[in-house]
Predict the 3D structure of the following.
Amino acid sequence: MNTQIITQLSIPPHFNPDQVGEVWRVPYQERAAEAEIWAKQHDIKPASLDKTSICLLLIDVQNTFCIPGFELFVGGKSGTAAVDDNVRLCDFIYRNLGIITKIVPTLDTHTATQIFHPIFWVNAAGEHPTPAATSITAGDIEQGIWKVNPAVANSVTNGDYELLEKHAYHYVKQLSQDGKYPLIVWPYHSMLGGIGHALVSSVEEAIFFHGIARQSQTQFEIKGENPLTENYSILRPEVLEDFEQRPLAQKNTRLMKQLLEFDAVIIGGQAKSHCVAWTIDDLLTEIKQVDAALAQKIYLLEDCTSPVVVPGVVDYTEQADAAFTRFAEAGMHIVKSIEFGNWALGIGHWALGIGLGEKSFSSDPYSLLPTPHSLISSNNPLDLPLPNPEMS
């Protein structure tokens, strides 16, 4: 039995929890110098020497979703949920600098002319749909309620409007056939080059501090830049093929493989009911194709993620919790960041193969993986309620 004691560190003096809900510039050079001193003072070794490799996967911890007043702030039931989550997240990173091997933040990344933004669609009067209050179905297109904006064809399909119409119609039909959300028209958000796209300043600071202290390069993962498909999950877009069954987008098989090579993957971020849940479900789908026992590598920080709640309009709390319950039933661990010492030893047990026989996962688990074409995501795996098309 592994009787190792998990020792958590103190919080560096620069961290101010009262600033987590604000946007500010990280003083990189100052923090870098402090991180190197901190590592020496606390005997923090380079990540390359870790005997147990731990990845912290952070989903879309960006201003767009996490700062009050930004486009898609995840307020949860409290109204301050994402801010509170990120206070705990920063605390978790700092206290466990010497244990976290690599941090992988995902960045939802968009430009204006994308299929889920208002400019892409018009009605008969030339008006754009109201964001966050409009969903578009195949029936809407057939009835002429919404059509692709002819003016965007030049930017998206080199002026081929007919091609763009065919794709848009195929896209919304495919979403329905796969049991996914209908196409939701979102407010412009996570705009590449904008403030909303950036990581939350306090989280960015903690990640940067970790990278210097552990001499471990932060690995940023981009999603959502394809103009012709949504991309809730970091691991795959919503639709993979166009109307002629040609590849439209690809799964992030590189990241899938990499995650399964860690001894443990800890996941947090926003929103629990959408991009976080979709990512976890896609990861679970891939795990089941390799070995269901690999689910025991995954730890979900339930106090560092929150569902979408719009008071009086929609509340995804119940559905998000049900999804997490299903993930736990599959073998993943639902944990609290503030109780890390109580559950972290299980990571060491996994690495040693305790409770799992003599099987070793140090070799490439993807050697067992079927061909990509056979890895199809389950239909509406989270059993989330679909937005009402009548909202449009």
